[in-house]
Write a structure and sequence with these properties.
- This protein is of the alpha+beta class and 883 residues long.
- It has five domains: 208 residues, no CATH class; 99 residues, 2-Layer Sandwich (Arylsulfatase, C-terminal domain), CATH 3.30.1120; 326 residues, Alkaline Phosphatase, subunit A (3-Layer(aba) Sandwich), CATH 3.40.720.10; 116 residues, Sandwich (Immunoglobulin-like), CATH 2.60.40; 101 residues, Immunoglobulin-like, CATH 2.60.40.
- Helix content is 34%, strand content 24%.
- The chain is built from 25 helices and 37 strands.
- Strand 18 and strand 19 form a beta hairpin.
- Helix 2 runs antiparallel to helix 3, helix 2 packs antiparallel against helix 8 and helix 20 packs parallel to helix 21.
Length: 883
């Protein structure tokens, strides 16, 4: 081949534009890695010395070199096509990606990865966290990138006519790259490369290729979930002396009938952050330390996921939450299981939730709106002017203002003997750890850890507002404070690359605490019982004299406490999970890493990985995590009304005909109410039902439900789905007990088959209702301000605003006439009459009172068959113009 032909063929890759693009990207990559190295040495417990890290950084650059060559190739290809501006845009985009990754590295302590995908659902919440970490380096990096792009632009040449050939310099560079990659391959065998030397694009590709997709295992949920939580290899004996002390403390509190409960959830506060030498630090959290002097402190309580939304769900439900699916996707289905506030409301408690954060994050507000709170107040519900006045960061508002609102609620009139449940959530300890102007700083430093302790000190001051309010009211002796953290917060001080709370399952981020404080407890007690957030509901239930709820959690103060395995996970999409089994802590492998196993008794800082020495233990633990992961998710979905569980999902054809979900299940009693629970198995004595969800239509539809018994006998039930009705529940016609075996259930609409499922009836599963149980007519009743078709609990409803009444009823095969009697504060009343159609179980109605309606406390009395079956109170306040 002639020299001219060689020059022509090599011209695209030897153009000055491509040559300079590669140098620019490589230079910027090295510079940003050096910045990350400097940052980690200033704040982190990084492995090795600064010189060792720098040496590894220089020797391990193959990923940066390869990405730089890729950028150069793209630039060359664009130049060959004559797209000079596009080639500059490619270089600029690659550079901006590097800068964005370095920016995120300072916030998250790691490169961008799939673990941070949940933030993509609500990017606005990240604003303050990202802006807080802007320092002089970010503008400097952007300036250097701009200068580099200008340098690249000056050197580009047209590729037409071979004008891009620039002598032997690029050949020398290419030879140097090959030699370096060879050296790097050898060095890789002897040098443990620091994670920060990975190029962000290469790191993300490695993350995508090595992130595990959880694979389900065969299990029986009723058996294996119960088995999985038992200690695996060794049963550590229960400390009898500790059990006696805890039982005594619990008995002291339980002597007060229906005590007031104040539940305080500290944002981003774990046991590692709260405790100093094993005790609550009075210098940082003086109010919490004062409460701990008369309380029981559990310091081995684990968060299910190091994230706020999942933690709040687990606390409220006794440990039920989605593990394998997005919480945002599931929150649109009503949750029918136990909820802490709902249970306390049924026992006659006033209930109020006050959150400094915006509960719109991951649809948390939607869950709490159905949870039984008389008042639900969070930052996201404030008016725009009020938000601007109280905003602390992009996650929410000021804790002191929220505490004052909660204190005002405590002042509101209630019967003298009516207990209250106050649920208070802080915001300030969340990154970026900001406090209001004028609040005195505990520490003068501006590093993350100092800012965090200042924010924690400020949140504790808000707690002090509530403590003083209750003491001033004379109710302190009848009030129990239950205080916990939703998860921990890491600062790269113990585990390398463990920054924030979304980076791993180490103790800094996953282990939190639970404090139960009451003046009735004679002193400070500390327990090392291993628990999780799900234990909060049964513990509070016991303190209020309630019956033990049927939930995964257990009473941490109880004399029947059993050591169990605590499970946790990194996120629903990551495939990273772990467990605590006595002294052992297991963490499944993260992307590109190995499984981790620690003996926490000997190694509390998790520095010595024993997974290679204990391979069978690690393998068994990983298997149990898989059983728990899929089993707990399936269990949670069974308590979602209308959710199409896997066995009953409908296909495209059925959806076109109007059917959206088809779920078999049973009716489950719960005190004075009952709820539908999806199930694949039922006891012959159960009340078996089929629940369907439909797209709204303008005409009536004739629905035929076919029930085929194990012997082949078919029982048909024909119903009419009225216009705009979207849900229907029908019960298996006849009387229990039902024949054991496999029942086939099919649904036809207007003569066309639209869905099918099956249900196994077996005496091997426990009956949901005791013999002779009388099912109540009314299941639930909620009143609130109409908000997009939902009853939103509020302190009072402004006059002239629509009032939403939502009720759920047990199924009947006949129409029912309901009377709603609205009783005014003066005693006058008005009656509205409605018809609940046969086989319908939801009744929702919105009424709009006039603006001049009588203000004050109203009552709704529900009358059926000339008998009062429910009574609820609600307040009508001044018109909205005064809000």
């Amino acid at each position: 081949m002639s020299n001219d032909k060689v020059k022509a063929s090599m011209a695209p890759f030897l153009a000055w534009g491509a040559y300079r693009a590669a140098l620019l990207h490589l230079f910027l990559s090295l510079g940003l890695q050096a910045q990350n190295l400097w940052w980690t040495q200033n704040v982190a417990a990084a492995p090795g010395t600064m010189s060792q890290q720098a040496g590894g950084l220089l020797l391990f650059q193959w990923s940066s070199v390869l990405v730089a060559l890729l950028v150069a190739a793209m630039v060359a290809a664009l130049l060959r096509l004559g797209a000079a501006r596009s080639s500059l845009a490619v270089s600029a985009a690659a550079g901006l990606l590097l800068i964005a990754d370095a920016w995120a590295f300072r916030v998250l302590g790691d490169h961008l990865s799939v673990a941070f995908l949940p933030f993509a659902e609500t990017p606005a919440f990240l604003t303050s966290s990202l802006l807080a970490e802007i320092d002089f380096l970010i503008p400097l990096d952007l300036l250097l990138l701009a200068l580099g792009i200008a340098w690249q632009a000056r050197g580009r040449t047209s590729l037409s006519g071979g004008g891009g050939y620039v002598g032997k310099r690029p050949l020398v560079l290419a030879g140097a790259v090959v030699a370096y990659l060879a050296l790097d391959a050898v060095a890789f065998r002897f040098v443990a490369p620091p994670e920060l030397s990975w190029h962000p694009i290469a790191s993300l590709m490695r993350n995508l290729m090595t992130t595990r997709t959880p694979q389900p295992v065969a299990y029986d949920a009723a058996y294996d979930l119960e088995t999985a939580v038992r200690p695996v290899f060794e049963q550590q004996p229960i400390d009898a002396a500790e059990s006696a002390r805890l039982a005594s403390a619990a008995a002291s509190v339980e002597r007060t009938l229906r005590p007031n409960i104040v539940l305080v959830v500290f944002e981003s506060t774990g046991a590692r952050q709260l405790l100093h030498d094993g005790e609550v630090d009075p210098a940082v959290t003086p109010n919490l330390a004062r409460l701990a002097r008369h309380g029981v402190l559990f310091d081995q309580v684990y968060a299910n996921i190091p994230g706020t939304a999942h933690a709040n769900l687990a606390m409220s439900t006794g440990g039920r939450y989605p593990t394998a699916q997005s919480i945002t996707d599931l929150m649109r289905y009503p949750y029918t299981g136990d909820i802490l506030a709902r249970r306390l409301k049924q026992k006659g408690y006033r209930t109020g939730l006050f959150a400094s954060s915006d509960l719109g994050y991951l649809e948390t507000r939607r869950f709490f709106a159905q949870a039984g709170y008389d008042v639900l107040s969070d930052f996201g519900q404030l008016s725009p002017d009020r938000q601007n006045e109280l905003r602390l960061n992009s996650w929410g508002g000021r804790d002191d203002a929220t505490a004052e609102s909660a204190a005002a609620w405590l002042d509101q009139a209630g019967s003298a003997d009516q207990p209250f449940f106050l649920h208070f959530m802080t915001n300030a300890p969340h990154h970026p750890f900001q406090i209001p102007p004028g609040f005195p700083k505990l520490l003068a430093g501006d590093d993350m850890h100092s800012r965090y302790l200042n924010a924690l000190h400020y949140a504790d001051a808000a707690l002090g507002t509530l403590v003083r309010k209750i003491e001033a009211s004379g109710k302190a002796d009848r009030t129990v404070f239950v205080i916990t953290g939703d998860h921990g917060e890491a600062f790269n001080r113990v585990a390398w690359r463990n920054q924030g709370h979304r980076q791993g399952l180490y103790e800094e981020g996953i282990r939190t605490f639970l404090l139960v404080s009451s003046p009735a407890i004679p002193g400070a007690l500390r327990s090392r019982r291993i628990g999780n957030h799900g234990d909060l509901l049964p513990t509070v239930a016991a303190l209020t004299g309630d019956q033990p709820p049927m939930v995964p959690g257990q009473n941490l103060l109880g004399d029947r406490f059993q050591q169990r395995t605590a499970f946790f996970q990194f996120g629903h999409a990551s495939g990273s999970w772990g467990l605590r089994d006595g002294r052992w802590k297991y963490i499944s492998p993260r992307a590109g890493a190995s499984p981790e196993l620690y003996d926490l008794d000997a190694d509390p800082d998790e520095r010595v990985n024993l997974a290679d020495k204990e391979k069978e233990r690690a393998r068994r633990y990983d298997q149990l995590c898989s059983i728990w992961y899929f089993g707990r998710n399936a269990e949670f979905r069974e308590f979602l009304s209308g959710y199409p569980i896997a066995a009953t999902a409908v296909g495209p054809r059925e959806a076109r005909l109007g059917l959206e979900a088809l779920t078999a299940g049973v009716l489950v009693p719960d005190g004075s109410r009952s709820f539908f629970a999806a199930a694949r198995t039922a006891n012959p004595a159960d009340r078996i039902a089929l629940e369907t969800s439909w797209r709204p239509a303008q005409v009536e539809r004739r629905i035929v439900y076919h029930w085929q018994s194990p012997a082949g006998k078919q029982i048909d039930s024909t119903q009419v789905l009225r216009p705009q009705v979207t849900q229907q529940r029908v019960f298996l016609p006849g009387e229990a007990p039902w024949p054991a075996g496999s029942w086939q259930l099919t649904v036809d609409v207007d003569g066309q088959r639209v869905g099918a499922t099956q249900l196994e009836v077996t005496p091997d599963v426990r009956a949901r209702a005791p013999a002779g149980y009388r099912w109540p007519e009314l299941v639930s009743l909620h009143i609130g301000r109409d908000s997009a078709g939902h009853a939103m609990p509020v302190r009072e409803i402004p006059a002239g605003e629509p009032v939403r009444f939502e009720s759920e009823w047990n199924m009947s095969d006949q129409d029912r006439v309901l009377s709603y009697v609205l009783v005014a504060p003066s005693g006058g009343s008005t009656t509205e009459t409605f018809t609940l159609a046969a086989h319908q179980f939801w009744h929702n109605v919105t009424l709009t009172p006039p603006r001049d309606v009588e203000l004050g406390e109203w009552s709704l009395v529900v009358v059926y068959r000339d008998r009062e079956i429910a009574r609820r109170k609600f307040r009508i306040g001044a018109p909205s113009s005064s809000l």
